[in-house]
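Work Package 4 report. The design task specified in the project plan requires that, given a folded chain encoded as structure tokens, an amino acid be chosen for each position. We show below one input record used in the internal validation round.
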């Protein structure tokens, strides 16, 4: 019997930081450098580009960060979608459709496993491994609230119940207070400023010391 270790196959992926191997967490740092990540998130539109004007993942992440309380949760809010430039902003309805069409395949669980894999690299590169489960849950809830706010602003969603509407309205207020950074460069700069302020306060490590903001 051959017991020799067989390494997993490489999964090359083109990113704004160059070619990386998604299977090898240690190779992902170039894709997660601050300027690269900010540019990528600002260029990735939510809802498959269905909003008018366009609304980027970078802008969404900043809104989520304003909805949480602790600095570590704010940092994770900025970074919680950092896997999307490599996986894409695959919509939850899309996941549900695939799962419906392929019953028993465990599609949603597989997507989440892939996200968790890349999120491990995100936390390592930005040195956010001290994040607590409570802070992760806080960001997940803020992510949901921000999504409701976007539905309210962009789609005039009448389906929001009373329990969700107050949070959605707060998220919409934050979007307005931020002057709706729909322009790609404005969203990029807003995300970078927030991330740099957290790094300056020692909440996260700035992965690229040469990048002066």
């Amino acid at each position: 019997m051959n017991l020799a270790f067989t390494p997993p196959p490489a999964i090359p992926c083109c990113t704004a930081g160059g070619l990386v191997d998604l299977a090898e967490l240690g190779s992902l740092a170039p894709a997660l450098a601050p300027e690269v990540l900010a540019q990528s998130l600002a260029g990735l539109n939510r809802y498959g580009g269905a909003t008018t004007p366009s609304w980027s993942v970078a802008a969404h992440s900043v809104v989520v960060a304003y909805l949480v309380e602790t600095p570590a949760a704010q940092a994770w809010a900025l970074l919680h979608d950092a896997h999307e430039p490599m996986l894409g902003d695959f919509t939850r309805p899309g996941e549900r459709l695939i799962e419906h069409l392929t019953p028993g395949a465990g599609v949603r669980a597989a997507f989440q496993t892939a996200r968790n894999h890349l999120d491990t690299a995100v936390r390592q590169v930005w040195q956010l491994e001290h994040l607590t489960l409570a802070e992760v849950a806080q960001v997940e809830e803020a992510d949901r609230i921000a999504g409701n706010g976007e539905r309210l602003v962009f789609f005039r969603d009448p389906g929001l119940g009373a329990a969700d509407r107050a949070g959605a309205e707060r998220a919409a207020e934050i979007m307005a207070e931020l002057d709706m950074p729909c322009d790609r460069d404005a969203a990029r700069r807003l995300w970078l400023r927030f991330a740099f302020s957290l790094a300056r306060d020692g909440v996260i490590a700035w992965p690229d010391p040469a990048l002066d903001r």
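The mean pLDDT is 90. Validation will be extended to a larger panel in the next phase.
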